[in-house]
Automatic annotation (TrEMBL), chains A, B:
<protein>
    <recommendedName>
        <fullName>3-isopropylmalate dehydrogenase</fullName>
        <ecNumber>1.1.1.85</ecNumber>
    </recommendedName>
</protein>
<comment type="function">
    <text>Catalyzes the oxidation of 3-carboxy-2-hydroxy-4-methylpentanoate (3-isopropylmalate) to 3-carboxy-4-methyl-2-oxopentanoate. The product decarboxylates to 4-methyl-2 oxopentanoate.</text>
</comment>
<comment type="subunit">
    <text>Homodimer.</text>
</comment>
<feature type="binding site">
    <location>
        <position position="104"/>
    </location>
    <ligand>
        <name>substrate</name>
    </ligand>
</feature>
<feature type="binding site">
    <location>
        <position position="223"/>
    </location>
    <ligand>
        <name>substrate</name>
    </ligand>
</feature>
<keyword id="KW-0028">Amino-acid biosynthesis</keyword>
<feature type="region of interest" description="Disordered">
    <location>
        <begin position="329"/>
        <end position="352"/>
    </location>
</feature>
<keyword id="KW-0520">NAD</keyword>
<feature type="site" description="Important for catalysis">
    <location>
        <position position="190"/>
    </location>
</feature>
<feature type="binding site">
    <location>
        <position position="132"/>
    </location>
    <ligand>
        <name>substrate</name>
    </ligand>
</feature>
<keyword id="KW-0460">Magnesium</keyword>
<comment type="pathway">
    <text>Amino-acid biosynthesis; L-leucine biosynthesis; L-leucine from 3-methyl-2-oxobutanoate: step 3/4.</text>
</comment>
<feature type="binding site">
    <location>
        <position position="247"/>
    </location>
    <ligand>
        <name>Mg(2+)</name>
    </ligand>
</feature>
<keyword id="KW-0479">Metal-binding</keyword>
<dbReference type="InterPro" id="IPR023698">
    <property type="entry name" value="LeuB_actb"/>
</dbReference>
<feature type="binding site">
    <location>
        <position position="223"/>
    </location>
    <ligand>
        <name>Mg(2+)</name>
    </ligand>
</feature>
<comment type="similarity">
    <text>Belongs to the isocitrate and isopropylmalate dehydrogenases family. LeuB type 2 subfamily.</text>
</comment>
Length: 352, 352
């Protein structure tokens, strides 16, 4: 592409700050390639909700659909009741735009502050990606409650899983595994307890596997997967899992790979009918908002995922290389002089 | 009590081996106190299912109900289809005997092989306990599937949560927090997405809190909890959470505290209407079954939980002290001469 038409949702807390640095890097790398970038800001999140009571309107969605991709900072603020923005903005975006592939890479970068004893559990580092289903599972909002606030209250949450929904994400995960050197796919579920959903996932993986004969497949229960993420993260290449398990595993994966400050993600519609959305895994961190303290690296790595998705692969690789170089220098530098959000963005942009 | 009438379920794989050492230690410690121990073996698990097609019968349950407590090894074998023994034996035991409190302590023992860089993330060790709800949540088996095996398959799993079920486990967790020096309770859920169940949990904690004014309460989303379990496990004292989140968090907790080989658990009916059941968190490990390689320490620590539950607190403390002494010696000993299952049991029993 020679132009890129982006929707930008800074959102709440540190969202706008890290997105600004993501855009700085995006402009730097695309300028060199002569790609024209247009951006349109969308006001979504706590501020708008407080001012208007609106979360995500049909008009917002219609407008968002017209862009090539969406860059999102973070949505969420303690002043808004829990669930309102998650179930009013973040999740409706993923669901309405059919972001069935929630892609979350986990790489051990140089100088990463992993809580693991790396020399012992991962002497050669690790590099895996979680393909989290993004439009089904317990996230569908099909729960309810009866007799709320009484001793007879009953509250349910329904996990909905369909052959259609599982197959498309499983096929995407196989394709990603196929494209990687190790070609290994691990299904994570809990099919010994959640037998209906679990067996659907298992049968789907078995049914798609023959299309990818080079990919080796294994299975872990979600509880066992958390053990392996700490004692042997290098065993993983591509993990495919449901929406809730993926939520849990990717935060753990971010932690062991050196923190949520480096974790990027893409909410992808593989059919390309709708724009895909790229966002750091971290939240809005209201405690440090507006102070220039947030690390924009996850947002910048999310820009790299965005560039790759829209077909600007060399630009994506250059951004990743610049981040790697910055992290390498950071790792060997004095920690006593932490850089501001903007300084990190400028340092990475300067390498492009 | 001056006598103890135990049901013993060795089960599958390494189950019978580790239970034998648990009983060795139990006999050694109760003998000194003049407590008479009677045991009755129950044949549950893969072997019986293969021979008779039976899992857990009403007659089994009636007989089990007559005992003071149950000691269980492990249930599960790859020769049995996934879900059959879990949903036919293990979970029906927990559900029928109203084991609403699934108690799982996590202590960093000396010499523990934690994957964490302990000097950095937990220089003073850690010691917390997870109170996992055991009779509700997504474990209730209220799922189903339509059009199985077709492209139109839909599979659901329903998490059921009741005020009755949540309140009893929350109250138990508060009481445990109250009895510990730090008096801290952390609720773990995902109430920003699972709003109905999550808000029931949240409101219940808020409603019970005034009864325990000394206990300080906080909340974490389950994804964030996995981060803290790796970057700052010492922040936890008592965690209370639902059945599925508890399953996931306790395996992770076992990993960071040095492995599932040391993790004990109790399935407790706090009303004492039914016998409670004590079992190591690890599974049947069929790959090493019958070789005397399994570490019986988790089974022995489960015996300590059992003793404490039936009111033999000094005996429980002596078992825990013996395990601690053994682990301390183990930690400083050569790893080149691993002891057999029986040798570990004998070494711990010899200290009593
Ligand atoms: C904020 C929340 C709704 C969201 C999720 O659970 O998916 C977040 O934890 C994430 O992982 O992107
Ligand atoms: C075997 C399985 C049904 C069980 C569970 O999920 O509860 C196990 O993982 C556990 O933690 O005791």
């Amino acid at each position: 592409p020679t132009s890129l038409d982006l929707a930008v949702v800074g959102g709440d807390g540190i969202g706008p700050e890290v997105v600004a640095e993501g855009l700085r890097v995006l402009r730097a790398v695309t300028e060199a390639d002569g790609v024209e970038v247009r951006t349109t800001d969308y006001d979504l999140g706590a501020q708008r909700w407080h001012a208007t009571g609106e979360t995500l309107t049909d008009a917002d969605l219609d407008a968002l659909r017209g862009h090539d991709a969406i860059l999102l900072g973070a949505i969420g603020d303690p002043s808004v009741p829990s669930g309102v923005l998650e179930r009013g903005v973040l999740l409706p975006l993923r669901f309405a735009l059919d972001h069935c592939v929630n892609l979350r890479p986990s790489t051990l970068f140089p100088g990463a502050q992993s809580p693991l004893d790396l020399a012992r559990v991962a002497p050669d580092g690790f590099d895996f990606v979680v393909v989290r289903e993004g439009t089904e599972g317990p996230y569908v909002g099909n729960g309810g409650a009866l007799r709320v606030g009484t001793p007879h209250e009953i509250a349910t949450e329904v996990s909905v899983n369909t052959a259609f929904g599982v197959e498309r994400v499983v096929r995407d995960a196989f394709a990603r595994a196929q494209a990687r050197p190790r070609k290994k796919l691990t299904l994570v579920h809990k099919h010994n307890v959640l037998v209906h959903a679990g067996h659907l996932w298992r049968r789907t993986v078995e049914a798609v596997a023959p299309e990818f004969p080079e990919v080796s497949v294994d299975y872990l229960h979600v509880d066992a997967a958390t053990i392996f993420l700490t004692v042997d993260p290098a065993r993983f290449d591509v993990i495919v899992t449901d929406n809730l398990f993926g939520d849990i595993l990717t935060d753990l994966a971010a932690a062991v790979s050196g923190g949520i400050g480096l974790a990027a993600s893409g909410n992808i519609d593989p059919s390309r009918t709708n724009p895909s959305m790229f966002e750091p895994v971290h939240g809005s961190a209201p405690d440090i908002a507006g102070q220039g303290k947030a690390d924009p690296t996850a947002a910048i790595l999310s820009v790299a995922l965005l560039l790759r998705h829209v077909g600007l692969v060399p630009a994506a690789e250059r951004v990743e290389a610049a981040v790697l170089a910055d992290l390498t220098e950071r790792g060997s530098a004095q920690r006593s002089t932490p850089r501001s959000t903007q300084e990190v963005g400028e340092a990475i942009a300067a390498r492009l």
